[in-house]
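Hi V.,

Quick status before I head out on leave. The structure for the redesign project is tokenized and pasted below; the design run finished overnight.
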């Protein structure tokens, strides 16, 4: 942990006086392999045996601190033109994303940026930016750059991103002109509040909704606030242009203001706050974002979603409250420190223990992308050409980076798919992705990427076929036996806690496979783990 001299005062008091209430995982001992595997499930694109071995040399905090220090592996500067293409195409961006997710050393930053991309959503679907490949990658790099920075800075960079400006139509947003039937566009103003900062309803520090005297949830904003913020976001357009109405497109640099097209009047925002007339676009923007950033609902709103993306879909109120407190104050008086927030999420006792002793289901449904990324990392999958060139991945996964169907992401954090879960007050957000069609397609995809793509056993692989290296697992099977192989698979897929009934099923399966090649047997066993209901839940 921290040394006493350098420990933030709040954490020191918490540990010495209120330790039972802190929820801070304070182990000084290096992680054992099962603990390392669980941490990597939450904080990377999936544990590998080599990663588990390396992480086992450190405490959880040491591993996180090491990851926080690593420079960002950026995307935009690594996009290549694919074969038979003259310029980068959307597949070029996706290929770069996959390569970095599979191989980059800064796994924690990449995983957090992926989580942020599902909160601060930009998508290339149906908005004219589909072919702006570098611009979209640049937006993703913006999320990477601020993954461990301050959320207030991230709010500003997202607001002024030309990609976000196009996506939510506030690039070129103009002041009111009644004669020409022009009104400030409300799109970004609404989504900034509803999705990116404070949500629809006021929250308590533990993420529960505040209620009025009639036990009704209290809205965080009204139509007047939407209109006020819409006026704030007028007068901004592409950088480097001299003509607001006919801007020279710049998809990379932050947008710039034109005072002549900025709404000059008062702006009525939240809680009775009114921005005075006659301010510059920069003044209005700064004060409006500062106001949102200061709202008490923001820390639990964002903290809970990050917990859901990394650790568990149904965090206890106490867990949310502890992380939200760190968001509000990192211990040194700083609000919005995402590095401190991520650390608090992963070091919380409930994250590390799996809600031991808490009467609440722990874990989260694995997103399809995370399943494939984990399997490819475990099997060191690669194609003969070196490209990750899959045209139909979205058909099986129902998701792809920066390709959600709307600003509401692929799934909502409060999605609850069944009456029984709803009555229990529980959610399973990722199940909003599930359809009968893509469930079958995903199963076929996983079969193709394991049993159907064993390196050394595919006679004539295509240049883009991802070949899985099962030879190390085949060696374990031959030299050390089935139980040792299942122990390895248990560590990789379940943090060493493979359910007994699944292990028995896999043992029976191995016996029934007969005298096939060891690599095939290893592949079949891994495939059946990947499609098992037990593996579907990250715990």
């Amino acid at each position: 942990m921290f040394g006493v001299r350098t420990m933030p005062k709040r954490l020191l008091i918490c540990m010495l006086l209120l330790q039972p209430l802190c929820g801070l995982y304070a182990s000084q001992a290096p992680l054992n392999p099962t603990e390392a595997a669980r941490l990597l499930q939450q904080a990377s694109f999936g544990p590998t045996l080599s990663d588990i071995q390396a992480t086992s040399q450190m405490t959880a905090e040491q591993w996180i601190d090491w990851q926080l220090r690593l420079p960002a592996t950026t995307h935009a500067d690594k996009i290549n033109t694919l074969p038979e293409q003259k310029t980068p195409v959307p597949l070029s961006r996706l290929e770069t994303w996959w390569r970095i997710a599979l191989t980059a050393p800064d796994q924690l930053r990449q995983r957090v940026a992926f989580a942020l991309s599902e909160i601060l959503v930009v998508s290339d679907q149906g908005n004219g930016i589909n072919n702006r490949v570098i611009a979209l990658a640049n937006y993703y790099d913006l999320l990477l750059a601020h993954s461990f920075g301050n959320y207030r800075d991230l709010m500003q960079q997202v607001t002024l991103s030309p990609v976000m400006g196009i996506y939510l139509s506030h690039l070129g947003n103009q002041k009111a002109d009644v004669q020409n039937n022009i009104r400030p566009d409300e799109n970004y103003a609404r989504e900034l509040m509803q999705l990116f900062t404070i949500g629809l309803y006021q929250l308590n520090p533990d993420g529960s909704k505040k209620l009025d005297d009639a036990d009704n949830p209290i809205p965080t904003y009204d139509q007047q606030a939407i209109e006020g913020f819409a006026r704030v976001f007028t007068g901004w357009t592409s950088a480097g242009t001299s003509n607001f109405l006919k801007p020279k497109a710049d998809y990379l640099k932050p947008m710039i203001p034109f005072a002549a097209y900025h709404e000059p009047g008062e702006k009525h925002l939240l809680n009775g706050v009114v921005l005075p007339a006659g301010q510059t676009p920069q003044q209005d923007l700064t004060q409006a974002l500062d106001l949102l950033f200061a709202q008490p609902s923001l820390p639990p709103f964002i903290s809970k979603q990050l917990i859901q993306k990394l650790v568990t879909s149904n965090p206890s109120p106490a867990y949310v409250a502890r992380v939200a407190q760190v968001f509000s104050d990192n211990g040194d008086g700083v609000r919005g420190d995402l590095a401190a927030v991520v650390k608090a999420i992963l070091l919380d006792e409930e994250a590390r223990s799996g809600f031991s002793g808490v009467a609440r289901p722990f874990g989260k449904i694995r997103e399809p992308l995370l399943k494939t990324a984990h399997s490819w990392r475990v099997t060191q999958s690669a194609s003969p050409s070196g490209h990750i060139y899959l045209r139909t991945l979205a058909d099986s996964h129902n998701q792809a980076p920066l390709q959600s169907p709307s600003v509401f992401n692929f799934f909502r954090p409060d999605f609850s798919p069944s009456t029984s879960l709803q009555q229990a007050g529980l959610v399973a957000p990722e199940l909003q992705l599930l359809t009968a069609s893509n469930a079958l397609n995903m199963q076929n995809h996983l079969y193709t990427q394991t049993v159907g793509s064993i390196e050394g056993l595919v006679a004539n692989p295509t240049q883009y076929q991802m070949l899985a290296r099962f030879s190390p697992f085949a060696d374990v099977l031959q030299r050390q036996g089935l139980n040792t192989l299942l122990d390895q698979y248990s560590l990789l897929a379940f943090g060493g806690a493979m359910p007994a009934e699944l292990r028995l099923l896999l043992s029976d399966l191995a016996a029934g496979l007969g005298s096939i090649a060891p690599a095939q047997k290893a592949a079949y066993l891994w495939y059946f783990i990947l499609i098992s209901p037990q593996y579907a839940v990250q715990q």
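Above is the designed sequence. The chain has 25 helices and six strands.

G. will cover questions while I'm gone.

Best,
W.
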